[in-house]
Amino acid sequence: MNFLMIIGTGAVLTLSAVSCFGQDSSGVKIIPNGHASMEAGQIVKGFDKNAGDIKNVVVERIHFGAGFNKT
User: Sorting pLDDT into bands at 50, 70 and 90, what band is 12?
Assistant: First the structure.
């Protein structure tokens, strides 16, 4: 399932870049920007103040941000 999220993020960034680059007759440029990153790892042993002792927890996160600059 995480693989599909990564592919989806890449597709959104690619479509934004393809459809939004350009300059109209007034000289206004709209430039898309964005970032995506993935964090993955395992907590072998630890302590959380809410959960107590934790062992062998897999951590997977995907961060995504997108926006546009107008000049």
Answer: low
Degrees to nearest 5, angle at CA 7 with 65 and 32: 35
Q: State which residues form the domain around 64.
A: 2-70
Domain count along the chain: 1
Amino acid at position 56, single letter: N
Q: What is the pLDDT of residues 41-68, one digit of tens each?
A: 888 999 988 888 988 888 888 888 888 8
Distances from the Cα of 69 to the Cα of 13, 17, 22, 50, 64, angstroms: 14, 12, 12, 41, 17
HEC-encoded secondary structure of the chain: CHHHHHHHHHHHHHHHHHHHCCECCCCCEEEEEEEEEEEEEEEEEEEECCCEEEEEEEEEEEEEEEEEEEC
